[in-house]
Design a protein that fits this description.
Distance between the termini of chain B: 22 Å
Structural class of chain A: alpha+beta
Number of domains of chain A: 3
Strand content of chain A: 15-25%
Radius of gyration of chain A: 34 Å
Strand order of the largest sheet of chain B: 3-4-2-5
CATH architecture of the largest domain in chain A: Up-down Bundle
Structural class of chain B: alpha+beta
Largest interface: A-B, 81 and 84 residues
Strand order of the largest sheet of chain A: 11-10-16-15-9-12
Number of strands of chain A: 19
Oligomer: heterodimer
CATH architecture of the largest domain in chain B: Up-down Bundle
Strand content of chain B: 5-15%
CATH topology of the largest domain in chain B: Multidrug efflux transporter AcrB transmembrane fold
Number of domains of chain B: 2
CATH class of the largest domain in chain B: Mainly Alpha
Number of helices of chain A: 12
Order of helices and strands of chain B: HEHEHEEHEHHEHHHH
CATH superfamily of the largest domain in chain A: Multidrug efflux transporter AcrB transmembrane domain
CATH class of the largest domain in chain A: Mainly Alpha
């Protein structure tokens, strides 16, 4: 038992000492939860169904492009839920479309739609593709958020998946999470569309066919509405890099982007064909800027000017570099604890721990005398052991976790009380000290085991049920059960055996 | 009703061998070792009292509802601390903003320096923005750095709904598992009686939470789950003793055996509950507001758990046994 206590102390020195000598074998203090050290906890839901819809949308846009290059006329291509409906201008092209889809769109299959009529075709996503999306979307979102946060620069962030479609982000030390929230929550879909022009374009009040009105920033930085063509010419998935540089005096900071080979070619063709038109650069359905294409841009580089300040530009470059989220995120929960409350909680937790344990310690020593002191020794070892395991395995200590340790103190003596009461009973029957101790341990064992198993069951359910701080509580509770079983049953037994054998004691004090 | 006399400990068959002529040792005791209280006879009245209390509590829950925390109700909570006493009206004025409806500002002690601001929001979309509106409102009125934001919590309604389901499920599942475990380790009668006693404990604690107006949040549920696991202990100890005594002596009816077992383990039951009551009282008084309702629920639950292991679960064992006997 002394060895266990000693080992625990080795692990605990970095937590409690002001400074640790470099030769000390353990350097890590106990990790504190956000509720104790201060910081922000964010819980996001990933809209996986929306991600599937988006995939259908993208497939449809690709299909439209293929139709154009293959010169297949379609009077309508539209999405109806998860089904892409196509109305062919010439019904003889039907077989050609089916071949095209089979060849170029392995993820699409013909959908069974009854009223498709003559020249009507319908496609939907393959089952396995839907399944793949369900499996991978959250993982993708997780990675993207992780990259964004890494580049944002927070010490020791935690980004974890939870449940089927949730992501937990923990940012220690962040008190005002506004900027982090914007960074994480941004879908960051970058699109290039042309500003609508010509007689069919319509007006802002009455947009013409194939056009739409989007919000955006004007040249003076104020809000402005834009009339753009509905068709997306390019998306940001061809981006390889983005960086910030100062623009002209009126522009503020600008974000430069670099395209991959495919994107550079596409961008080159697009800008060659549309010289003189205005290209709207749209991020998450907001027009950031709409510069005029003065000359073909073939180098695969571009620039977004949107009157950004430095932080804005930096975050924009960050999200562009790391790619768009595959699905929109919904913030489900936000919890921020300021550092002063965290310190307060540590102080109060420690105080209630000290007072509670002291009461139990004194009571045991007073009530059971010698036996109580042995139980106290076990209790002390137990507390050291629980904390030592926290330090050694890098578990996170939360305020409910501290409460769990306090509670463990109350529960751990249970085993000793059972044994000591039993020893007393046996002594009353006139047994010798040795026999009474033997019988006390032997007879109390089954009750001790049962009561520990039941608390363990509820601890495991608690772990399953809870999140964050409550999990911290469940961990301390379960851990406390194991350590108290070791210290209170086996540890004290060793002490008794040692005392009874060495001094040939005829009496025990209980 | 037939009065049974409790068999003296020395009459136990296997203990006679070791009996010596020494005078029995004396211990410092809170509970005298030779109590023979007829707990079983008192049980029906106690059960009636329990049921009454639970009914009053359920009535209070029905009429007033539970004082739900952010976790369950959804919405936003911001706690601020000012360096000096600040009128609550000023804080309210700062938050009288178009984007915020249903703002409740509460002075939470410390001479008007700490305030709790709670905003009820209906849907997910507004939840995420509310914290920023509150921050901006405070910044506008008092200036940056003139106050300290202690904590911000914002929970969407979906989380609350999910939480309800998983909390109920967790409490029921653990109650059931305790019952099954006890039924396996002992027998079905004990399993059923333990599950019933646990359910009684949870309902009793809920009634107390409602009557005391304690906040009901995630940690409260954690406390409920803890008392489910912990209050089985007393039952285990008593049941263990019942089983032991049943093996030793074939004579005597169940009623006597129950009474003897409760009396024999009484000292242990009271002392062990005493230690957990010590520590949960320490948590309640010193642990701070964050775990106030948690500690309260634990304290009530531990006391009730001890009480029910004596007065609620044992009579159920007896009742089930009688019914079983009649059927036979």
């Amino acid at each position: 038992m002394a060895v266990l206590a000693l080992v625990s102390v080795v692990f605990l020195v970095p937590t409690f000492a002001r400074s640790v000598p470099y030769w000390w074998p353990w350097q890590e203090p106990i990790r504190l939860g956000l509720d104790l050290r201060g910081g922000t906890y964010l819980l996001y839901g990933v809209d996986i169904e929306q991600a599937i819809d988006n995939t259908v949308d993208r497939q449809m846009q690709d299909l439209e492009r293929e139709f154009q290059s293959a010169r297949i006329g379609a009077s309508a291509i539209e999405r109806d839920g998860r089904v892409i409906r196509i109305q062919l201008a010439n019904k003889d092209k039907r077989q050609q479309v089916l071949d095209l889809v089979r060849e170029r769109f392995p993820n699409l299959k013909e959908a069974n739609v009854p009223d498709s009529g003559v020249g009507g075709l319908a496609f939907t996503l393959e089952e396995r593709e839907v399944q793949r999306l369900r499996d991978s979307v959250r993982e993708q979102a997780l990675n993207i958020i992780r990259n964004r946060i890494d580049q944002f620069g927070v010490a020791e962030p935690t980004i974890q998946a939870q449940g089927a479609d949730e992501i937990v982000v923990q940012l220690p030390g962040i008190e005002d999470p506004q900027r982090a929230k914007e960074l994480i929550g941004r879908t960051a879909v970058l699109e290039f569309k042309l500003l609508a022009q010509g007689p069919q374009a319509g007006t802002l009040e009455q947009p013409g066919a194939g056009t739409e009105v989007l919000r955006g920033k004007g040249d003076d930085g104020g809000p402005q509405r834009y009339l753009v063509e509905r068709r997306t010419l390019m998306t940001g998935d061809v981006l390889t890099d983005a960086s910030v540089s100062p623009g002209s005096l009126t522009e503020g900071m600008v974000v430069n982007f670099v395209l991959d080979a495919r994107g550079a070619k596409q961008f080159g063709e697009l800008t060659t064909a549309k010289v003189g038109r205005n290209l709207a650069i749209i991020l998450d359905d907001v027009v950031e800027s709409a510069p005029t294409i003065r000359e073909p841009i073939t180098g695969g580089r571009g620039q977004i000017t949107g009157r950004f300040d430095f932080a804005e530009a930096q975050d924009l470059a960050n999200v562009l570099r790391n790619g768009a989220l595959p699905a929109p995120l919904t913030m489900l929960e936000e919890r921020t604890v300021g550092p002063s409350l965290g310190k307060d909680s540590i102080r109060k937790g420690a105080l209630s721990f000290i007072v509670g344990s002291l009461a139990v310690f004194l009571f045991m020593a007073f009530y059971y005398r010698g036996g109580g002191l042995i139980a106290d020794a076990a209790l002390l070892t137990n507390v050291l052991l629980v904390l030592g395991v926290f330090a050694a395995f890098g578990f996170t200590l939360t305020l409910p976790g501290i409460a769990g340790i306090v509670l463990t103190v109350g529960m751990a003596v249970d085993a000793n009380i059972l044994i000591l009461e039993r020893v007393r009973e046996e002594l009353r029957l006139g047994k010798t000290a040795r026999a009474a101790v033997e019988a006390g341990y032997a007879r109390a064992w089954s009750a001790i085991l049962d009561s520990n198993v039941t608390v363990l069951i509820s601890g495991l359910i608690l772990f399953q049920f809870g999140s964050g701080p409550v999990r911290g509580f469940a961990v301390t509770l379960c851990l406390g059960i194991f350590t108290s079983l070791v210290t209170a049953v086996f540890g004290t037994r060793v002490l008794y055996d040692w005392r009874l054998s060495r001094r040939r004691l005829q009496t025990v004090s209980v | 009703m037939k009065q049974e006399t409790r068999p003296l400990p020395t009459q136990r068959p296997d203990d006679r061998k070791t009996t010596s002529s020494q005078p029995p040792p004396r211990f410092f005791e809170l509970i005298p070792s030779h109590t023979s209280i007829d707990f079983v006879a008192m049980a029906p009245r106690m059960v009636l009292l329990s049921v009454l209390f639970i009914l009053v509590g359920m009535g209070s829950i029905y009429l007033r509802g539970l004082n739900y925390g952010i976790d369950f109700a959804g919405g936003t909570l911001v706690q601020v601390r000012f360096p000096q006493s600040t009128p609550v009206a000023d804080v309210r004025a700062a938050l009288d903003l178009p984007g915020l409806g249903g703002v409740v500002v509460q002075d939470v002690g410390r001479e008007g320096r700490d305030f709790q601001i709670r905003v009820q929001t209906a849907d997910e979309a507004t939840t995420s923005g509310t914290t920023e509106v509150v921050r901006a409102g405070l910044r506008e009125k008092f200036g940056e750095g003139a106050y300290d934001i202690l904590r911000v919590e914002s929970v969407g309604p979906k989380v609350g709904r999910d939480l309800w389901r998983s909390a109920t499920l967790a409490v029921l599942a653990s109650t059931l598992m305790m019952g099954v475990y006890i039924a396996l380790r002992f027998d079905l009668r004990f399993g059923v009686s333990v599950a019933a006693a646990l359910l009684h404990n949870v309902l009793f604690a809920l009634a107390a939470i409602s009557l005391a107006g304690m906040e009901f949040d995630l940690t409260t549920v954690a406390a409920l789950l803890t008392i489910v696991g912990f209050s089985v202990n007393d039952n285990v100890v008593i049941s263990d003793r019942i089983r032991e005594n049943m093996r030793k002596t074939r004579r005597g009816d169940l009623r006597t055996i129950l009474n003897v077992a409760i009396n024999e383990t009484l000292s242990r039951t009271v002392i062990n509950s005493g230690t957990v009551i010590f520590v949960s009282t320490a948590l309640l008084l010193l642990g701070g507001s964050a775990i106030h309702s948690f500690a309260f629920t634990l304290l009530v639950g531990f006391i009730i758990g001890t009480y029910s292991s004596i007065f609620v679960s044992t009579p159920i064992v007896l009742f089930l046994d009688r019914r079983g006997a009649r059927r036979r």
